[in-house]
Amino acid sequence: MQEIYEKIVLDGSNIIHDDTGIEMKNDAGERLIQIRPERLLSAINHCESLGWTAIACLKEGTYTWAKSNPDAETVGDVDLLDELIQDGKVITIPAKEDDIYFIDYALKINAMIVTHDSFRDKKDDQGNIIKRERSLYPSRDWADIDKRTLRDFRFVKDQFILPSLTQKGPSLPLTEKSTITLDQIFAEIMELQNMIRKIQHAELKKQVESPKNNKNMDRSIASSITEQMLSDGKKVQPNVLQQEIARVLLKLPKNQSKWKQGWNINLKKKLGYSNFSEWIVSISKKKITFDKKKGLLYY
């Protein structure tokens, strides 16, 4: 069945944030979000070892988050992430896009999808339905999407394992027919596409590193952290989310006991909010509910 597909699209967020076996926690015992480009590389290499071309889709916010904190304990090799993007093995998705982007991309290029996400609706503690992609985009052929989706990947000692992925087979050798001109044209097109991709990525790097764009980048990073912490129906106290955003944007150490007093004031000045809960709700693309009685934020 897998032979009908041409490539593999990886859920980059699923993989780059997967901390199986390398979990890190703060002083309160709460799990810290990590960004591990090495795990993306491991996933891509595994697919390629079986003869598959693999492309990972990753939110721009996650990239800017990593690029802005290259020395953080929770962030891996950022230079490796740059290389993967420049080589076209990772493509960045604008922050305004959601998970349907990589699903549609996989359908367009006739690829299989690798993710842990089921894209199904979820219920919160009050029984309210949290709509996900299946409900938000009912016109998509979800039976076809399910057939092409593999959800059994795991990391074992940093090695990406995907038992359901079969060998695609060796690439066909180039023939000796008179197609040299077409081959040359194709090679030139590929070279041009690589040049364009590198220019686009260079522009993204420039935006991340430019002080003029700090405010927008900070918002993008805060949105990415929020999306990750509230994923899969999780509920989080505003102060916990605020601390995680502060740790990343203010480059604070893993252990909060080492934070200097006034970090919350510095974060407020940096992001320009007066009320954190109201601010985080206002910048989110997805609707966030703030249960004031229980003091919880959730989608």
Report on this model:
- The protein is 43% helix and 13% strand.
- It has 12 helices and 11 strands.
- It has helices spanning 12-16, 37-49, 60-68, 78-86, 100-108, 133-136, 142-147, 180-209, 214-229, 238-249, 263-271, 276-283; strands at 7-11, 53-59, 90-93, 111-114, 122-123, 129-130, 149-150, 154-156, 159-161, 289-291, 296-298.
- Strands 3-2-1-4-7 form a 5-stranded parallel sheet, sandwiched between helices.
- The protein is globular.
- The two termini are 36 Å apart.
- The model is unreliable at 171-181 (pLDDT under 50).
Quick synopsis:
About 45% of the residues lie in helices and about 15% in strands.
Q: What is the CATH top level name?
A: Alpha Beta
Number of strands: 11
H/E order of the elements? Answer: EHHEHHEHEEEHHEEEHHHHHEE
Largest sheet: 5 strands, parallel
- Average pLDDT figure: 84
Fraction in beta strands: 5-15%
Which properties best describe this structure?
299 residues, alpha/beta, Rossmann fold, 5-stranded parallel beta sheet, two-stranded antiparallel ribbon, globular
Outline the secondary-structure elements.
Elements: E1 7-11, H1 12-16, H2 37-49, E2 53-59, H3 60-68, H4 78-86, E3 90-93, H5 100-108, E4 111-114, E5 122-123, E6 129-130, H6 133-136, H7 142-147, E7 149-150, E8 154-156, E9 159-161, H8 180-209, H9 214-229, H10 238-249, H11 263-271, H12 276-283, E10 289-291, E11 296-298
Parallel strand pairs: 1-2, 1-4, 2-3, 4-7
Antiparallel strand pairs: 5-6, 8-9, 10-11
